[in-house]
Amino acid sequence: MGASQLTVRVVRKQMEAEGICSFELADLAGAPLPPFSAGSHIDVHIPGGMTRQYSLCNPPTEQQRYVIAVLNDAQSRGGSRAMHEAVQEGSTLQIGTPRNHFPLKPEAGRHLLLAGGIGITPMLCMAEALADEGLPFAMHYCARSRRCAAFIDHLAHAPYAERVQFHFDDEDPAQRLDIPALLAEASAEVHLYVCGPKGFMDAVLDTARRLGWADERLHYEFFAASVDIAGGAFEVKLASSGKTVVVPAEHTVAQALANAGVEVPVSCGQGICGTCLVRVLEGEPDHRDLYLSPEEQARNDQFTPCCSRARSPTLVLDL
């Protein structure tokens, strides 16, 4: 087990909403856990050999525990079901140390947090951190219904409760979130953070871009992706050795490299976590990830070999 791996115990497992369970994780001996910042996630090695990423949702000031929440998603690849069914209070888990691809931006004059469904997990942590630091923010939390919304009692009774608005699909239409109106009235110093189902996030981000929001003010984290890896064969060339590896139509770049003895660290396998990100020195990638922003994708100087492919016959990689 590497230095970046920890063994923790599940000290509490609790239903937070319909289909959503929280897990409180602590060091086996009660020692402080590595620090984290708002927006951080951990890799959780789940029984059955799967690794999944879950956002930390407790305040970053807490050193004795990590709290994650998991939606038992019928469309998942099995990780969430294993967390709900195979992991119990008292279970031990291997986890990675916290990493943050979704940080709060200190240059923001105000922070606007938009959460859809299980996307509340990083937003809860952000709200706790912003409130603790006395920084201005507002949160909007959208869910199908109250019974499907995790942590609503906590948010309703939090010291910052007046900054949180709830929007439920099955209640009065007047209280539903008007995304265009909300984003149109935001001033230029506001930074937007969004997390939730892909349809919700696409609606928010597409609206923001249509209204002229600059990409540097848009911050987001996808939980799951529907990844299409299909495409024709191409080659990748390793800059350090000049070795060329053929990527067949039915394989990802990461798989082809692994078959050739070149290991690239892969975690989510869906292009959402950034673990496998590799620099591209020559050639044009066919970006299929949800991690890079459109502006970053347009630069074509990095890509995710777990799911992205090539538009050019060859990609030269910084490997």
Automatic annotation (TrEMBL):
Pfam families: Fer2, NAD_binding_1. The keyword Heme does not apply. It comes from the Bacteria. Keywords: 2Fe-2S, Flavoprotein, Iron, Iron-sulfur, Metal-binding, Oxidoreductase. Residues 3-105 form the FAD-binding FR-type domain. Residues 234-319 form the 2Fe-2S ferredoxin-type domain. The keyword Iron-sulfur applies. SUPFAM superfamilies: 2Fe-2S ferredoxin-like, Ferredoxin reductase-like, C-terminal NADP-linked domain, Riboflavin synthase domain-like. InterPro entries: 2Fe-2S_ferredoxin-like_sf, 2Fe-2S_ferredoxin-type, 2Fe2S_fd_BS, Beta-grasp_dom_sf, FAD-bd_FR_type, FNR_nucleotide-bd, MRET, OxRdtase_FAD/NAD-bd. Coiled coil: none annotated. PANTHER family: CARNITINE MONOOXYGENASE REDUCTASE SUBUNIT (PTHR47354:SF1), NADH OXIDOREDUCTASE HCR (PTHR47354). This is PDR/VanB family oxidoreductase. It comes from Cupriavidus basilensis.
